[in-house]
Amino acid sequence: xxxxxxxxxxxxxxxxxxxxxxxxxxxxxxxxxxxxxxxxxxxxxxxxxxxxxxxxxxxxxxxxxxxxxxxxxxxxxxxxxxxxxxxxxxxxxxxxxxxxxxxxxxxxxxxxxxxxxxxxxxxxxxxxxxxxxxxxxxxxxxxxxxxxxxxxxxxxxxxxxxxxxxxxxxxxxxxxxxxxxxxxxxxxxxxxxxxxxxxxxxxxxxxxxxxxxxxxxxxxxxxxxxxxxxxxxxxxxxxxxxxxxxxxxxxxxxxxxxxxxxxxxxxxxxxxxxxxxxxxxxxxxxxxxxxxxxxxxxxxxxxxxxxxxxxxxxxxxxxxxxxxxxxxxxxxxxxxxxxxx
Length: 341
Prior knowledge:
The chain is of the alpha/beta class.
C-alpha cells in the first residue's frame, strides 16, 4: 500500500480509501435497498482492508438509512478496538430527520449532525469532517467558523468539502484566510475516466491551494470494471441490473470507447480493468486517495492491487486520449492560443 499527505495537512492516508456507502442492509425505503452488504460481510471487509494497509475510510450520515453505515462502522470499532488505526472521514449536509432544519449547513444543524455522527460511530472525534454539498443558503463564514469551533474542541481534526462548484471553493478558501479559520484540506468530487469535468477548474484550484482531491465513483458505477459490454444487458446481480436508468445513461459510444481502451491496457499490464481505472486516477495531478466501494471480500481483493499498479506514460496517454472530453469555452479558445488551459 502507498501513502500520501491528506491535502496540505500533515497526516498520511492510503492511496486507496474504503468507501462504506454499501455497509449494512437498508430496507425498502432507502435508495440503497438491495445493493448493500450485510453487517457480517461489512465487518469482514473492514478488517481485511485495514490489514492490507487501507487506513482511510469514508462514510456519511445519509449512507444506508438513518445513519446505518456509521452505525455498522461504530460496532466494528467497538468489537475490534482498532479505531485509532483508521483515518475516519464522514460527511453532513443532506436530509436527516424531520423539521425545517433537517438539511443544510447552518451552525444550528452542524452542531446536531456532528454529535449524532459521533454517537453512531462510537468515537470521540471525526478525523475528516466534510460538507457533502455546498449550501448556498448558509453564509460560508458561518460554515467555516462552526467547523473551526469543532476543530478547537477536538471533535473534528480536519475539514473538507464535496460537490462544490470551483468558484465557491475558491471563495471558501479565500474566506478562510480572511477570517483566520482553517481551510478545507480536501475536496471529494466525482472523477473517473468516464467523468473528467473537474479537470477544467477543480484540478487547477487543488494544485494552486494544496487541496487534496478524493475521487468518488472512480469506476463509474461499475462501468469501468470490465463486466459490462456494448450491446449486452447488465449481468444479473450487478448494481446496474438494479439501476437500469443509470446503465442506460452510460450506454454511449464514448463510454464504450473508454471501456475498450481500459481492456487493452488491462491486457498489457496483466491487471484487471478496475485496477487500471483506479491506477489511472492515482497518476493524475492533485489526487490524494481514490474512494472505492466493496460489497464483497472478492471485490475488495480485486481492487487492492491498484495501489501498486504503475502505468507507463504511453498507457496513461492512451487512456487520456480515449476518454478525452470537449473542454468548451473558454478553455478550447485558451488552448488554441496557448497550447494548454
